[in-house]
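Lay summary

Proteins are chains of building blocks that fold into shapes. Our project writes down both the chain and a compact code for its shape. Here are two examples, one after the other.
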Amino acid sequence: MAPLTPESPGLAALRAGFADPPRAAAPMMRWWWFGPDITTEGVERDLTAMAEAGLGGAEIAFVYPMRVLEEEAPFLSPRFLAALDHAVRFGAALGLRMDLTLGSGWSFGGPHVTDDLAARTLVWERRLLPPGAHRVPVSPTFPGDVVVGGYLTPLEGPAEPVHLPVVDGHLDVPDTPGPRQLLLATTRRTGQNVKRAAAGAEGPVLDHYDAEAVRTHLRAVGDVLLDAVDASLLGAVFCDSLEVYDANWTPALPAEFAARRGYALVPRLAELVVDTPGSDSFRADVHRTLTELYEEHFVDVVCAWADDRGVAFRLQGYGVPPASVSSYRDVAMIEGEGWGWRELTSAKWASSAAHERGTPVVSAEAWTWVNSPSFRATPLDLAGEAHEHLLAGVNHVVGHGWPHSPADAPGLGWIFYASGALDDRNAWWPAAPALWRYLARLGWLLRQGEPVREVTLFVPGHDVYAQLAPELDLFRAVRRHVGVALTAALRTAGHDYVLVDDAVLDAAPRPRPVIVVAGTTDARAESWLAEQAAVGSRVLRAAEVVADPDLVGDPDVGIEGGEGDVGAVHRRIDGVDVWFVANTAPRERRVRVRPRDAAPGLERWDAHTGRVSATWETPFADLALAPYEAAVLVGSSAPATRLTLADWTLRAGVHGPAARERPVTLPHVWEDDPELARFCGSVTYTATVALDAAPARAELDFGSSAPSDGAFAGDSGLPSFRAAVEPPVGAVVQVRVNGTDCGVLWAPPFRLDIAPALRAGVNELTLVVSSTSAHALADDTHLGEAVAAVARRYGCRFVLQDLDQADAAVRSGLLATPTLRLS
């Protein structure tokens, strides 16, 4: 870590940015337009409320109607496009980022998707065959079906399937011994229509492996949307998570497979469903080809179109088609979803892609199902889930979401069917600006510099692709292959990781501190691992790490205590180390956070206030984290300057009985000072301190509080609660600097940041110390006389308890010498 002085420009810029983060760092909201059914007044009301609450922007999503429209204005109609143009302009004028979804509902599709451009699937039919040779007629079952071929296999025992091509509408089956079955492979449209489509946007989901299908959608929808708005005002165009169910075929697949893999697809197609000695490799080749077609014919096509239109493309790249973590390679804005810091979520999938790409900002769809149903979610729910995303490496959240509701909607108004309604109809909305500001500070800080993730978790694509069918969701298959036990073992031991796939096999070896391999049988992967070991990487197998996480080495962030509920992520920013630490449990966790690369001192930055809230002159921090509480720790390699403030004057006049100003030596115990021995009240101390420059932080520290006896039994014999510490001040101190009130201290820790009141040159410190009234009680003779008089008249009905202890062991004044810690 580079040397850093307390006045480092890097640290100063971080302080300033954390205290006042830009709006761009604040959460955005998915803004649901139902119908589409929205007015100019509705647009302006929603966007104004978002801006006033401190949100960073809106992602406009066009979904199903919530009422029958009297004057129908369907999706992409002139009236709809005019409302969209107004929304983009009005939002941008408010300083909001405005994103558009490239279609209605999900996944992409609509009435412009013809049968030849719709998503397709491969289906299998099994027929038992009697002995002998047969001519079996085959014909499509549904319109648009295409019979690819037949495959003859025995019912018992292993055997290679025999391919039977379709000739003139039939299959010629040879005479083979034993019971047999015929497998018939047919491709057909999946039948999936766009989910939650707006009025006028209904239709089939497109074939994401077909570049012409994608271009057709972009011409029919994307161009119309962008022609209606000023694209320079847009933050991004957006594609939600891939949910093209059962889409495992495209008409060009046989030709593409042969060109890429070097052998024919159709003769071996039955190996997708029949195990043979070579079927694993064949299945891996088929599924890898589908990934490549998705990347080249969908992702690359949309990226190129977005570049031509001058907008960024934001993608949730996981699901079906089988997107890989490296499929994000050319996407401008990478996004994930899903909370859970101990396991592999799509948020971690996305942040891993961003890490390998060097992309500083990675977002996540958050609060998708938060505290369902709508309006149950609290700010604590939102912050708690957001912390999990941050622990996964995400640094920007897009909330799910803000349902537009017209002013004349009955009852509570319109809500989205899935969970959160995170708008100003919530009774807790007065707290929303503070919540969004809190998340903006954390998001901004965690996108500075570079993430520190020393563990590379390598998942061999060959082995996962071989086991992909029939689900076809590569992210879920990788998650199963890795297993929760491995990721939980790494994270709870203090190690963060980046997930990589076979894309690294094509890159030149470079040292990676630790590589953990989730089981592989691929010779090419083993060769890469050997090359990595040769350049200094330590290679470990997943099973041994699960059994003993200590094999990975010293954790980047050691968490002592916490019962596995406290996680951390680490960023390195121009020589400054920043750790985000979060308690994800519904109970308090006390932990010692020991960063491996910690500087001699640590600071805690409070995301609620944007200020430093605590400091340690140790390479570790002891934290008591409340349920779902998070902390930011910041370290530098330069210790703070500590000044001992020993020369004080006791000032006469305003406070106290002293007849003159006089110097005092600290510690100053009033009970040991003849002029103050029995005094109760307030006394003023003054001192001066000269500074070359106003510091960024100046903590006035009155000293530690030593343990003492707590509860005791007095005359009554009952335990009386007493704080079990001897504080450095007896009992309260009000601090003024250069005439400015800085605060009052009455409980440990007796520390206060006075930097805002300090200046270059000579500064005057004024401490008004107030005692208890214990001595006054002990010296009050009239109480005894009054009690005696009452007893004589009415008898003894009470006893003033423990009067003999009224001022026992009382110590007043400045009981230690304050210090000023400058940084």
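And here is the second example, written the same way.
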Amino acid sequence: MDGSGIIASAATGAMGSLLAKLASLLESNYHQMQSGTRREVAFLRDELSSMNALLERLDNADSSGAPPLDPQTREWRGQVREMSYDIEECVDDYTDHLRCRQRRDFPPGGSGGVLGFVLGYVQTVREMVSRRGIAEQIQELKARVVEAGHRRKRYKIDDAAAGSSGSSGVVPVDRRLPALYADLGGLVGVNGPRDELVRLVDDGEERRMKVVSVVGAGGLGKTTVANQVYRNVGDRFDCRCFVSLSQNPDIGMVFRTMLSQLKKDECEVSGSGDKEQLINELRDFLQDKRYIVVIDDIWTSQAWKIIKCALPENICGSRIIVTTRIGTVAKSCSSPDYDLVYELKTLSHGDSKMLFFRRIFGSEDKCPHNLKEVSTEIVSKCGGLPLAIITMASLLTTKSVGTEEWMKVRDSIGSGLEKNSDVEEMNMILSLSYNDLPSHLRTCLLYMSMFPEDHEINRNFLVRRWIAEGFIKVSGCRNLEEEGECYFNELINRSLVQPVDFQYDGRVYACRVHDMILDLIISKAVEDNFVTVVSDRRHILCPQSKVRRLSFDNPSVENLTAHSMSVAHVRSLNIFKYSEQMPPLSNFRALRVLDLDGNENLESCYLEDIGKLFQLRYLRIRASNITLPRQLGELQLLVILDLLNCSHISELPASIVELPHLKWLIVNRVTLPNGIGNMQALEFLSLTVVDYTTPVTVLKELGSLKKLRTLGLDWRISSSHKDKIEYADNFVSSLGKLGSSNLQYLTLISPWSLDFLLESWSPPPHHLQELAIKGWSVSKIPVWMASLANLTYLDIEVQVRQETIHLLGAFPALQFLKLYSNAADPKERCLVVSKNGFRCLKKFNFVHWVNLLFLEGAVPVLETLEFQIIVHEVQTASRFGPPDLGIRHLSALKNLVVNIYCECARVEGVEALEAAIQVAASMLPNNPTLTLRRFREPEMLTDDAG
């Protein structure tokens, strides 16, 4: 969990952490370890280290585009991978045995007398039996390792790995050929993207060369669209070529293909030559020509750098179109001076239906009535992916027109079980993106097969799961969370998961796995015995070997066969809906991750044995009526405890302070016990309550948590409380210490004034990035806050005045601002945002019934704005027509929400103001989405009103 080594991966099993644990056992001063056992451990470490290197080579060969591994090699790899899990479990049992003995040798209180002697004797006998059992396990595992080594030599696995890393010499048929020769009459949804790309390519610029990148997921139709553009505008250029790349392209062959197409009317085309010679020949030929070149399906920036050398940047108005699945590659290819990255979108629902019905029946009108509903459901599951729609249509042409068979196909989407040549062909295309991933990202993607179809997955939640599983390895100066977010972003960047929600700063907040990608990763996960899913909608995926990760996706009672499934080796358990037929937790002795999600009928008794899960790193409970057992403190390896959705829990058991490795404590308005200062590993603590039952010592200890980065606190000490000063002084002191350490995210909620905190906070918390103060208005923004160079997010209730706007406008890094105030100064009925104010602000929500005016040059990068207008006041201030609010100056705006306060205003005045806002918004370059909301509309004045 320290990020020094991967605990588990789909490619190497538990080898990463196992080798680290074996090395740790040998280096540690475990005087209890017998010399024979030490020799066995040393042998296991050396032999497994060699096998791990071979597993990594096989994994690289398996994803390099080389021929697939032979069945014998794949079988050996699977056996070694499973063996690594078993050996790690044995090592963990042995380590637990040593740890428990150490705790017994040095008990907190100690025990003596006759009772102590008897208990000590009994414990000695138990230890002898336990030690003998562990020694026998190690001997058995050693025998398995020796046999695996013999098989490695007999089957010549090393030779197989070396052979697979090379090329077989057989060139497969390019699966993009159908896209290149698609009949225009059979295409759907192409016209819009084609016309937009034609506009980018043929924009009237006659001299400068431009590179346009088209980016999108596999199967989205990038090749088809690029080819249509190529056909549409190709005749306007002196010469042209269209080349498709593989994941590991032969650049020499690419250059020769380009030459043969570009020089098609010339008899002389070189058939040989090194890359340098070919580059020179291409440059010489193209130097004075207006050319168009399409580079289809480029995978790396490095490949582009080499190809770009052969394409001279002349002044003839040449064009290059690049298609790719990877966002960073698209940006590196496109012309830097232009915004020339075109993201290809999925088909609309209407176009999806048109393509589907045209492929099967010719048109929707010809679809049998009994198949229309199930057809629409199948189309929806395809998620607008043309490849998926065409594949499903081709599959269904082999089925009868009976509803039952079509419903089976519908239900199979998202299960990874449908075996059909068309489906396999589609998976081969989608697998290109999967195979291009480095090993650690493939593991993280496969893990997402545990989640149900169409499940919205929160980024932070997913990253914490990856951390608990040990999939993340830190690099550079990033911590585990930051590294995990990089993994998450890379999967989105490679178009393998779909972003569904964004934060104020553009970071993706949540994602979803496309059903077709889910199909693919489920099949891969089952193949590698990485995940087992039990569901009422998917078939039960029970591999023959031991279950390692288990997900109960809302299984029906009759379909729940978990009792016949061995769960003793399950490392990760996800229960999306609890059932009384579930095996007891005591059966899951190897469990590292436990997620009880959406289990409103979960009973507290199910958690009674949780203290026996000695290996548990992650515990998340989502249930409304659960109480925590006191055995929680026995989970000595627990790193993440998520009780955010447990509304019934108002206090934590006292034993929680005995968790030395706990980093994330995610709760919702609970009180903390004494001893919180013992939890020195804590980095995340939210949302806790401080009220009259909270000991003052808790506030004192809070300041000692030097690693704490996130804190959420609900302050309920009223100004009339007799010990208010003592509470406040300790709170201010602790926040001062945290602010000087690592505090980056702070949320404070209180029905009472928090001026005492902001006025006294010293030294300023210079690491602070996000601050939210809710529940009560502070009187003013302290001047020292403007010095927070890292503050990007501020949500605060404050009495807003003009000086407040000026002060906030000078914040150097502020990107999100929500200002709320219910106090109005009658002298300041219009607040002005001046030139150069809020230089970095992207989202501004101003909740205050006072008018706002933007001067030219204000908020230059603002994308989202919500504010209020009091109509009768702006009409009073402006005698000649609707007022100019300065909206026309907000050139970066994409979303605009205006709340219009109608009381005491005339109907025609409100309508005129709305029309003026609409005109101003329509003139902005991004054509922002506009929402107008009326408040107190019944109180408007009519023409005959007094």
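What can we say about the second shape? The chain is about 40% helix and 15% strand.
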